[in-house]
Specification:
heterodimer; A: 250 residues; two-stranded antiparallel ribbon; globular; B: 173 residues; mainly alpha; 6 helices
Chain lengths: 250, 173
């Protein structure tokens, strides 16, 4: 009897510990998270940029924005020629290209990391371990999409606005939810939300419904259907062979 | 010949008489107009039907119920067929479950909603929103220039002066 009680208590403790450690469903092999952005619908309002800053506890004075929105001239999909600092939108004759971490299938940033602080999870999200990162910024140089950002100082976020799991990849970090200074950070596909089945914050906030999120492996998902049915679907800098998991459709 | 001329003139007169009548009919249809009781607040949709017949494009003239362009009446459940006649791309998206069906969760699809659940057909305008401010452009390069350029220039000039001075002195000797 006593033993039984003890074992029960033990089970409870173990259960409690499990919950305390991580409430996330682990990343699965069968899913491949992807995003589809309808550039025909995007009006360049930058709502996603600021929602992302709030959700992921990005330093308010650090001038870091995980999402960049470019104002593009018609006839080109080259993001390097885009204007990042446009003031007015939507302007007739321009189109808007939101970019962020593309979570590439063969990510160049992962190859160059000397300490293996960044890798690709089985569900397709490229993650960074902030505790391992030494801040050498090789990955920033390797990324063709300029998606990675360096923390020159500790992110300063008003205490009331701190999101508990923001920017943590849903993993228990000693430094969560605020990142230390001297590490590289980037879009996480809001892993703390998407691994629970919710939409990333940028998808949720988009007033035009231009962003779609889902499982690229599932042929019935919203994203797969969009890529199949729209008359044009492209990825950025496809000639580099990075195979990004963010598609743009028209 | 005379007869033909007379016929032509009579035809002309008749046609002149008929055209105002036809005009009156069209005006009558407009005169029976919706604006007598309803205020016209259609937003972008006021451009429909050559601006005059904006109401009649969607509403039946006699029963007032919505109808699709071939005259078939539609109900609230089948109203999306009416929107289809102009917004076909969105309609295709909607039938595929891409537009208007996802909730907060990408794994589960919410109940099928008709277009008018979310969009007001009478004022369909999406409110204009202005963009939020852009990030600050990097200033590091200019700052470096401002801080380091004058001292560097001064140093260079100093070196040049000294060397020139030395060579001249040596030359004098």
């Amino acid at each position: 009897m006593g033993l039984g009680l003890l074992s029960l208590a033990g089970q409870n403790i173990i259960g409690f510990l499990k919950v305390a450690q991580s409430q996330e469903t682990p990343s699965r092999n069968t899913t491949k998270y992807g995003m589809v952005i309808d550039v025909g619908a995007c009006i360049g309002c930058r709502r996603c940029v600021y929602a992302c800053i709030k959700e992921n506890n990005i330093g308010r004075d650090s001038n870091i924005q995980w999402i960049r929105v470019f104002a593009m001239e018609p006839g080109t999909t080259d993001m390097d020629s885009g204007d990042l600092y446009f003031e007015e939108a939507p302007v007739k004759g321009k189109w808007y290209l939101p970019t962020q971490c593309m979570h590439c299938e063969s990510p160049p940033c992962v190859d160059v990391c000397p300490v293996k602080a960044t890798w690709k999870d089985p569900d397709g999200i490229v993650v960074i371990d902030y505790d391992k990162c030494i801040g050498c910024r090789y990955c920033m140089a390797a990324c063709p999409y300029w998606a990675r950002h360096f923390n020159w100082k500790k992110p300063e976020v008003p205490t009331a606005e701190i999101t508990r799991e923001g920017g943590t990849y849903g993993l228990p970090f000693s430094t969560a939810p605020l990142r230390p200074f001297g590490v590289v950070e980037k879009c996480t596909f809001c892993a703390h939300r998407t691994r629970k089945g919710m939409h990333p914050r940028c998808v949720e906030i988009c007033p035009m419904g231009a962003r779609h999120f889902g499982d690229l492996n599932d042929p019935d998902s919203e994203v797969s259907k969009l890529i199949k049915t729209r008359r044009q679907a492209f990825r950025l800098k496809e000639y580099l062979g990075t195979k990004s998991q963010i598609y743009y459709v028209v | 010949m005379k007869f033909k001329a007379i016929l032509a003139i009579t035809l002309l007169i008749i046609s002149m008489a008929v055209i105002p009548v036809a005009d009156a009919i069209s005006k009558g249809a407009e005169g029976l107009n919706c604006l007598a009781c309803h205020s016209k607040k259609l937003g972008v949709h006021s451009q429909l039907g050559n601006k005059q017949y904006a109401c009649q494009i969607c509403h039946d003239e006699f029963i007032m119920k919505p109808h699709i362009l071939n005259g078939t009446l539609v109900t609230n459940a089948t109203i999306s067929n009416l929107c289809d006649s102009c917004h076909h791309e969105r309609y295709v998206d909607w039938t595929l479950g891409i537009h208007g069906r996802h909730g907060l969760n990408y794994t589960a699809t919410s109940k099928i909603q008709s277009c008018v659940t979310c969009h007001d057909p009478h004022i369909p305008d999406i409110p204009e929103i202005s963009p939020l401010p852009p990030p600050e452009p990097p200033e590091r390069s200019t700052v470096t220039l401002i801080i380091f350029f004058p001292p560097a220039l001064a140093l260079l000039m100093g070196v040049i002066f000294v060397t020139v001075g030395f060579t001249r002195k040596n030359g004098d000797r």
